[in-house]
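Lay summary

Proteins are chains of building blocks that fold into shapes. Our project writes down both the chain and a compact code for its shape. Here are two examples, one after the other.
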Amino acid sequence: MNDTPVKHETTNAFHGQAIASFSVAMAATAIGIFRLDANAWVRGFLAIAVLYLVTSAFTLAKVVRDRQEAGRIVSRVDQARVERLLAEHDPFEKL
């Protein structure tokens, strides 16, 4: 059976870059919204819309990841079944 573990980890540099990129994007958006030449209701609506978009993006990313992991698990189970059948099969056995 193939015992090669599936590596899911990212490097610390990539993790830091992702956090920094997210922070800069959120800060730039917040500054842009609050410096916008519009009344408070418009700025508030845009701020809530951005927060909703961010939370929806996190949820979507989690759902996609969960589906990929579930598919990977099913694939590994199927592979283990096939390997077990092949290991138990005796081509010289009389029928």
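And here is the second example, written the same way.
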Amino acid sequence: MLKTTRRKFIASASLLTLVPTIKLLAMKAEKPILVHHVFFWLKNSDSKEDLAKLLAGVKSLSKIETIRKIHVGVPASTEKRDVVDNSYSVSELMFFDDAAGQKTYQDHPIHQKFIAECAHLWDRVVVYDTMSV
């Protein structure tokens, strides 16, 4: 009876070690995604009203159907280091299935309305688009 219990334990332990491997394989099997990261610098960086308007405008973009996930943020109060740039006012990070989805977003009426209503608020915009490998 002890051998049977030991065998079951070893078999169970072996299966548990496969779980991280299976998760890793599943992650690698995911199809590539396009990441669209935008940084905005407000013209009037001290204006709470302008910041609120820009944040509301960026958040309105989440209604665009090709956006798979969106994160809207402001600079974090993390350790000051030479490699950290927290000079921006607002950041948006979006995930798309592909370049076609990102193109749909660019041309979408909600995005065009956002630009029309909020462009006067920012002084500078920097965009980083990346494709997973």
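What can we say about the second shape? The chain has a mean pLDDT of 87.
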